[in-house]
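Researcher: I'm preparing a figure for a lab meeting and need a structural model of a single chain. I don't have an experimental structure, so a prediction will have to do for now. The sequence is pasted below. Please return the structure as tokens so I can convert it later.
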Amino acid sequence: MQSKIRGVRIAGIASAVPAQVMSSLETAGPAGISPEEAQKIANMTGVHNRHVAPSSCCTSDLACAAARRLLEDLKWEPESIDALAMVSQNHDYDLPATACILQDRLGLSHACSAFDMSLGCSGYVYGLWVCSGIVSGGARRVLLLAGDTISRTSAPQDRSTVFLFGDAGTATALEQDANAPDMTFVLGTDGSGKEFLIIPDSGFRNRSTPGSFVRRRNADGSVRGPLDLYMDGAEVFAFTLREVPPMMAEVLSASGWTLEEMDAFVPHQANQFILQHLGKRLKIPAGKMVLSLDEFGNTSSASIPLSLSYRLGGRLRQERMKLILAGFGVGWSWGAATVTCGPMVMPEIIYVPEPAVQPAAS
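Model: Understood. Here is the structure written out token by token.
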């Protein structure tokens, strides 16, 4: 589907990551492979370091840190926020919604609507579409929070995932602005790909049993169990090259843009191997592909705003930029957006120390 949003401004973006860093070499030991093989994996995926959340840190802790900094730098009063959306697949609880918890932690008004969106790789683009639509529908200001602690879903000896995923939380502030340039969105879904990127026993379809906690060696040599993330890399690669090029052609046509006039292409940070092939297929102009894999890895729903903070923060504080954002992956689900934004508030990345454990809901 296509959608065009008018009269909405991106006022700022903030990103937070755990302070703890793991290099590919530090990951090698628990994964049971040699440093030489770990270096080969890092060179192929582009992931040399990942910021990894300790067990006491939830996605909400990272998103809360980002939102607090953003509200402070924008000088927005908490009661001016009309809606809060949390995009994540790593929630604090099965229920209540993590967005409700964050409404309380951030001190937002009881008149603020709050809801979760359970999406991963495409989640930021979907969240931006939903939240900008809420603003265009009459809300004054909306907070979009996006993030995951996806590293904790990988089995330590599953070499297909454990070297790839890092953790992050982000906050994006949206508000009414009659003079803001249009945002154009293209979105799609193919749920037949659900089995290729999945945690099999994580919900109500396959309820957890004692056997769910048992990890076994698989044909590819990786050790994982039904409660660990499973990824078929070949299928992810095929999906990306099948669906993303036509999505990009459609969003460019719908917005009237060309690749040459855009300032930057900011994709979901799947892995370097996929993105290099995608860049060649799309003929992305040299220097316009934005990557943050080397320092943060694949941070799921946070990867696009985190890349904006890390690579383009300085420019977006000072100038207006024409950006193409593209998310694609788990679901299968995909979305692209053309946005023109800046100058805007872009705090430096926040490095969050291990927090105190949040009390359980009574």
